[in-house]
Amino acid sequence: MRSDPFLIRGSLLISSVLLTWLALPGNFSFWPLLVICLVPLFGLLHDLSSIAKALFSGFVAGIFFYLLQLYWIVPVLQTYGGLGWYLAVPALLLLVCYMSFYPAIFAVGFHLMDSRGPRLMLPFAAASLWVGLDWVRSWMISGFPWMDIGYGLWTQPRLLQIADLVGHHGLTFFIVMINATLFMVVQRSYRNLERAVGVILLACICMPSVWYSVDRWEKVEKLVDAAPVALVGVAQGNVEQTRKWSPEERLRTVKDYVRLSTAATAGQDPSLIVWPETALPFYPRADELLEPVSEFVDFSGTVLLTGAPWFEAEHSRTHHLMRYYNGALLMEPGAGFSFGYFKSHLVPFGEYVPLKKYLPFLAPLVEAAGDFTPGTIDAPLLAGPIKAGILICFESIFPDLGRAWVEAGANLLVNLTNDAWYGKSSAPYQSWAMTVFRSVETRRSLVRSANTGISGFIDPLGQVQRQSGLFVEWAESMEISLLSTETFFVRTGYRFAPICGAAAVVIIIFSLLRRNGGSDRW
Question: If you count Cβ atoms within 10 Å of the first and of the last residue's Cβ in the chain, which end, N or C, has fewer?
């Protein structure tokens, strides 16, 4: 009985999608699957006879994978964006199709390098191409670097230490390279010499990285032990999104945060208390609802960092303009608001509508989605010994923002977020897992305050020291380390990923030009 090629290829594709999904945060986080999850996909691409089939297979794999990863977009757009399901579902499908172009491009590149390129270079080339595409996805059309495969290692801090050199992309590189090497080992069409060279090349790259991680762990541990500390409090109010902005509930929300903060800091003298994104559900310019907050700050003598909306009015002879911001505001005892940061990387279709100036038909979405103005990263916010770099909401998934804050002088990263609209989905767990890497990349402690969770404390080694549950009230205080050293990643920025992408392009061009007695069919 002959095997059905379509069934075999479909099984390989679905196997890779499911293995990767099971390995990543928000699902089962079974990280050992990361070393084999791409092998079935590579086997599928190896057996295809044309570039068009590779393109289609990569695109379909992306569709299945991102539907599993991003299904929560629909309730987010409905709850937060105010869109009906008839707009939210097509928006999800549009995003999934866009995201799927990246695995489609990878599939074409892998097929070319496997069939026509220098086969000994395949593991390196495949890893370089994957990382290069991840990097492009991180900035193209505003950027959406959600759930890169390297994030699957978030529960293994001892394996993350190389991130202070090459960022989380370095971990993605090793995962893809291991998978490609295993593919070479099990694929019969590769000669023994090619398999041996692939394994040796993998060992030559991975062994120094393992040594670096072990050595770096010990050195950073000593730095953390010797570093100055500051006591920081966090409050998680667990305010339902449906009642948060209700006029009748706003005073209750403020009093809940004051109550939680009072309990968390009882008998202590913290340098800073952190409330979540938009913890103040009103514009706090001389609003009477601000009175309980001011009384708490003055009575406790503690600096408060809270999320709140803000606006600035611009008036001239020709126009009157109101600019709205998603802000993080610092309130000091006896001084009121002294410093602030306005979110610089806004959520497309959540906090602004892209290209609205050039696409007038998108104008109706502005009222539903919001029309915020982006801020800029300048100086850290000061609270005693703390110099806080602020990441609001999904800014924590962008490594370059954490790097920019540390470059500006921050000795602590603070993430304020409101994940209530995600509901009880995988998204809050995914967001929390990605945030862990910002600590390792910058060697900064990270404090996170989320409205409904997950809130917590992460040390410069990437260890989660304390964390809250979802949809519970939570308040904690903890001493955190304040490091001031700059990592290679902070000093040099995004170098590794674009270099990988450039190397992959060179290898693909070589593969296209190479005459090997045959040619790919379209």
Answer: N
pLDDT at 518: 45
Helix (H, G, I), strand (E, B) or coil at 454: coil
* Number of Cβ within a 10 Å radius of residue 407: 16
In this structure, are 371 and 334 located in the same domain? Answer: yes
Domain check: are 459 and 499 in the same one? Answer: no
Confidence of residue 337 (pLDDT cuts 50, 70, 90): confident
Q: Indicate which residues carry an active-site annotation.
A: 277, 343, 393
pLDDT of residue 322: 81
Q: Which residues lie below 8 Å from residue 204, measured CB to CB, with a gap of 6+?
A: none
Which residue matches tokens 């603070």? 414
Q: Coil, strand or helix: which one is 331?
A: strand
User: What gap in Å lies between CA 465 and CA 469, rounded to an integer?
Assistant: 14
Residue 519 is predicted with a pLDDT of 45
Examine residue 433 and state whether it is found in any structural domain, yes or no: yes
CB 42 within 8 A of CB 183: yes
Instruction: Tell me: pLDDT of 347 over 90.
Output: no
Helix or strand run (H / E) with residue 439: helix 427-442
Same domain, yes or no: 176 and 234: no
Q: Residue with structure tokens 């993998």?
A: 202
β-pairing, 381-383 vs 464-467, is unpaired
Tell me the average pLDDT across 70-88.
Answer: 80
pTM for the full predicted model:
0.92
- Count of beta carbons in the 10 Å neighbourhood of residue 53: 20
The whole-angstrom separation of Cα 11 and Cα 18 is 10
Q: 5-23 and 39-47 helices cross at what angle (nearest 10)?
A: 150
Query: Of 450, 451, 446, nearest to 482 (Cα)?
Result: 446
Q: How far apart are CA 37 and CA 21, in angstroms?
A: 9
pLDDT at 364: 52
Beta strands in 253-319 (DSSP E): 272-274, 303-315
User: Which of 339, 282, 281, 335 lies closest to 305 in space, CA to CA?
Assistant: 339
